[in-house]
Amino acid sequence: MSSTATSDEDRYEVAVVGGGPAGLTAALYATRLGHKTAVFDRGGGRAAMMQDTHNVIGVPESVSGNELLETAVEQLRSYGADYRREFVTDIDRAGDSFALETTDGAAVADRVVLATGFSDGRPEPPLPRTGRGLHYCLHCDAYMFVDEPVYVMGHGDSAASVAMIMLNFTDDVDLLLRGNEPEWSDETGRLLEHHPVDIVREDIIGVHNGEDGWLEALEFEDSAGPRAADTESGDGTVRKYTGGFAMYGAEYNNELATSLGATLEDDGTVTVDDHGRTSVDGLFAVGDLTPGHNQIPVAMGQGAKAGIAIHTELREFPKSLAELEAEGAVEPRDVPAIGDELRRRANAHASARGD
């Protein structure tokens, strides 16, 4: 890491790396609990890809992922957090703190929250449009396909499992191997034999979309075993689908955690306790970077718990008995502990309530 100097403006109590629901919620709690906080966000991410928001109480499905995130950033800024559209390239220990190097400068923080998530493994083209027939979140989107023809792309255990799970919602499920040989276990193979899932081995050679952009059908090379409702079109078999799921694994963005020596799980997620603490003192991880369900409400809950845990570690009061014996009683002039800028923002919010 370079030795870029940092000004007081670049010194934070809490630095959050990643601007998805988990990171923004951690930053929200840290800021409202009185800690100078910055979010470093390179943009993009899984939440930003959402055409519609599902399973978030109080948020209409008409709200896109980008709209959800933009509203959250506006809230953060109103409370006094810094939102920096920068990519964090490196993090090192700097005494009891952390030194962050970014594409636009540097910063120092007492606590760091990693919320860098993962990238879905994506099938090769041709594809349906993401969010308009191609989906990655079973628990978010299965409801959309009740009694509809559905595909699952993939050739491993996870794809086979999701195909069988989708039988809870529809009786019309295809597992698309796309020319690959199955890599699932013998046990999974036996399970598939006893569930009404059609296995389509041929690859896709065309995508049929409606005028609204939503998927209507996929076209396969050779003969992919047409069902009663399917037709022949061009050089291949056309099979009708309302949508489906791609299951090609995930690549976790754990480079920063690894560079700091944080413990990882076998799948590449970062090992954390119930409040997001990693094996590195002062380093937290939340959201899709950690084990568990990849869901916005879950990620927000993890962010909230991490923010509260950080506050518990950083707050000035109450002083311990040892501190009081060494330093004396807390004087009225010593409180409150909240910084001037955050205090001003809090007073502004209080004034707005009185209008």
Automatic annotation (TrEMBL):
Signal peptide positions on this chain: none
Keyword hit for Cytoplasm: no
Ranges of residues in domain FAD/NAD(P)-binding: 12-303
Compositionally biased intervals (Basic and acidic residues): 332-344
A single GO molecular function term of this UniProt record: oxidoreductase activity
Location of the region described as Disordered in the Swiss-Prot/TrEMBL record: 332-355
Keywords associated with the record: Flavoprotein, Oxidoreductase
Domain of life, source organism: Archaea
Keyword Glycoprotein included in the entry's annotation: no
Listed InterPro entries: FAD/NAD-bd_sf (IPR036188), FAD/NAD-binding_dom (IPR023753), Ferredoxin-NADP_redctase_2 (IPR050097)
Protein name: FAD-dependent oxidoreductase
Species name: Natronorubrum halalkaliphilum
